[in-house]
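Researcher: Here's a chain I'd like modeled. Treat it as a single chain, no partners, no ligands.
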Amino acid sequence: MATDTLGRRHLVGATAATMAASSRALVHQALAATGPTAADAAVASALPRLSTQLDRLAELAVHVGLRPAPGQEVVISTPVDALPLVRRITEEAYKAGASLVTTLFSDDVATLSRFRHASTESFDKAPDWLYGGMGKALADGSALLFIVGDDPMLLSGQDPDKVARADRASARVYLPALQPLFTFEINWTIVSYATPAWAKAVFPHDAEDVAVGKLWDAIFAASRIDTPDPVAAWQAHNKALAARIQYLDGKRFAAVHFRGPGTDLHVGLADDTVWTGGALKAKNGITFNPNIPSEEVATAPHRDRVEGFVRSTKPLSYQGTLIDGIAVRFAGGRIVEAKADKGQYVLEKILDTDEGARRLGEVALVPESSPIAKSGLLFFNTLFDENAASHIALGQSYNTCFVNGTALTPTEMDAKGANRSLVHIDWMIGSRHVDVDGLATDGGVTPLMRTGEWVG
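Model: Modeled as a single isolated chain. Structure tokens:
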């Protein structure tokens, strides 16, 4: 899970990406009970159906995703364009009993100004005071809600070295601050908003208003907003994911094997792992959905037990660069060869982030029948794209993938084979042409996926 998707996920993928974006240019503001803005009026008057669907998305974000407890504070991190949804979520959170809702806004224009005009030295800096405040809010028990929708191509024309340095600087300060998130001390969630820049990246040949409408339709379908009862639909979906997890946990696989064109990969699993996906229970006792949407079940590879070669089946969108045709070879758990048909330089920069960036922190299984896969779209957003196909993630492991994981210390996780890194980057390796088997410790083979779908 965003982590990623990481609810589990995204933590350093989708989640951390949002925080990294927010760290570039944030305006801190507590939303006041003021009247509708021009953006609100535009939504209500031009697109009545959209206004209704945004109401349903806000309800889902609060009552399925975040589920704040009475008296709990809520922090929202969001692009400025998402204000119509922010206002709805804020209202729903207060109705649900939140004691205070505070919003941090990021602005793509201000972010771009930094990369165009700031001194070279500034890209090794990050606002530790901001993450210090965020860390205190989370340590005090605040719930955290991310809205994603930033322009995925914003930094496509900028110096990749500056982008990498800014990301590393942000990671150094947000990782300690967000520990209550990573260790699931608190409830948190990620939802999305169809900004014009994001919509044009997904639908470049359509007029902006048409592109935004198409992206909203895709978001609503993937998030089950277009069902008669979204809350009931998510309850059923969580139940199905829980049944899949129970089956996989019962098998106690030692490894997962992927076979297909350009792929023959053995992913050995870490010791004492469990599978996870859908709804999770935080240490504060609240059951929440960290990623909306979410279609995966995932677990933790052993950092030293990955062997073979693998080729990506979908492009990876990373900080404005599209990395396509990724092909890597693992030996002893580490990537020893890496190529890409497009975006090779950026891929190399990712792998050079730290030692853990060349090892795996997650392996996840997603069927071809997922709503996101069926859309046929590349969303340029990890929250969605990771739910379109089975995938692996470079970098950080997550403690929720271990037995009693939230009680483990970093040293204890290391002993079980978990990976450490400043990054957690998911990329897709599954398709209808890739078969997946579970491998037992005694060598037994259990078919898990054929032609992209679950077996049984």
